[in-house]
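Action item from last week, closing it out:
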Amino acid sequence: MAMVDRYRKSGGFNELLKVLETCNAKKREQIMAIIQSETPEWAAAIDQKTITFAQIISWESNVFLDIVSSIPSLQMAIALKSLTPAEYQVVLKKLSHQEQRKLELVYDEIKPTPVDISSGVFKVIGDVRDLIGKSVVKVEKFDMRLHIPNNFEATLVKPASKPPERPAQGTKGFQNSAFEAKAKVPAKPFDVPFYLATENRPEVLKNKIREITQQLALALQQNAQLKEELESKKKAA
């Protein structure tokens, strides 16, 4: 069972995206490595549709203003503490005078810890993902790459591989003649290719089995953690 199988239902891609957008970089990297190995088409879509805090504060003024007015000022102020003073001033200029004043009053009073700031950034990203889902923020109006159409999950299928073309029988020419000539060369007795002789040695096979077992255990562990995190988020909501 692939890690993304539980998210193949309608709306599941959004759920998975939100989980990945709001977890720390190390955990996201581990989960994405598994998804990339199992379902590369999902990994590519996730990379394209993912939003970051840096993206959010770079959006047009009217879009960012809609976001700020929809999110508690304390939460946004904590997230903005992740910026340098110069970056913070640039972001403030995107807002109306009223919103600037309201945000500055909170920003100047709070002294969050680095953990609080990191958590605040993830909360803002999660809230923005919800605003996109409710069409409060319409990404298709300013960045179509972030747009997720209905039943998007159904389009994330692995393309069928095209079978290799075989040369037509009886076709004359250099390539066909060379192929036939090569096929007629008798094999030498006990002429075993080097890679087969080495890769099938017992110690090599044991190492491969051990490596696959470790990868499977890691995948199962990450899958369980992802499920627990999703359930806790649902309960908290």
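Closing note: Residues 171-200 have pLDDT under 50 and may be disordered.
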